Amino acid sequence: MKDIDSILHALPEAISHTFGKGKPADYIPALAEVPRDRFGMAISTVDGQDFIVGDAKESFSIQSISKLFSLSQAMHYAGEKVFERVGVEPSGNPFNSLSQLEFENGIPRNPFINAGALVISDILLEHLKSPKQDFLDHIRRLSGNLDIQYDERVFRSEYDHGQRNAALAYYLKSFNNINHSIAQVLDFYFYQCSLNMSCLDLARASRFLANGGIDPVNDKKVVTPKRARRINSLMMTCGTYDEAGEFAFRVGLPCKSGVGGGIVAVIPGKMSICVWSPELGAKGNSLPGMHALKAFIEKAGISVF
Ligand code: GLN
């Protein structure tokens, strides 16, 4: 695996032309203030090795990458029933879009847009005794990092600027696709978005998706092999919102992004990857992050295709 290390260390230079071309999320001050020149990448292989470059150990706001962990936890508890309340089609629309809900009877297009994640949060509220703590424990266990915390300031700001998510939750409830109170659902959803993790934490936490649903470090089953395949499929088709086609075309890996600038990618049977740069492109995905993934798979010559 010496190659991985040298490819990784050559990446910041190889994608330097993309720095300065994107824009950090600015809908809340806590994200707008993150220094835009950060770049990190981490790789965790299914045989337990880690490779890192740049700011891979610096924590950032995971935002919508949390949707990966909430979906896998919901599938663990509710199995296929999850897909009676959330669809599996790419939306082709921005992550916070309301419009499709009206024509699809309040069934969000997929679990990775905000509407879908709000329903997933509602499902988890049914199954978890202490939802926030249980979710945090799940993430800490997967990443092997007990110091992971949520960011109170980001959490508060999500609330202050959460009108769109509140509208989605109310709208979903009008179709009876939310069972708990709007306050409970939003509180839990914003909590998930506000977790701080590093690239290394996220690469380790998503390693089970590269290993048939089993965490290779402790041999624990996180989800069944079939569910791991399904989560990977959904990442490929829906994980980067209305840029999923572009990601499939350029990167060709299952990916899940967040507006904090992180992107998790999976190479089934081999490794999980997390790249981070706060500079987002027009669709809310990290621009240097996308280019780094593309450069990595081209140089390493590995792909799912
Ligand atoms: N907290 C953000 C929101 O709910 C997460 C969106 C994202 O990362 N794409 O709008």
Radius of gyration: 18 Å
CATH superfamily: DD-peptidase/beta-lactamase superfamily
Counted by DSSP, the helix tally is 14
Strand order of the largest sheet: 2-1-10-9-8
User: Segments where pLDDT lies below 50 for 5+ residues?
Assistant: none
Distance between the termini: 21 Å
Q: Structural class, from secondary structure content? A: alpha+beta
At the fold tier of CATH, the topology name is Beta-lactamase
In total, how many beta strands? 10
- Name of the CATH architecture: 3-Layer(aba) Sandwich
Bound molecules: glutamine
What is the string of helix and strand elements? HHEEEHHHHHEHHHEHEEHHEEEH
Just give the CATH class: Alpha Beta
Q: Structurally, how many domains make up the residues?
A: 1
Principal-axis shape: globular
Strand content: 5-15%
Largest sheet at a glance?
5 strands, antiparallel
User: Level of helix content?
Assistant: 40-55%
Average per-residue pLDDT, rounded, comes to 96
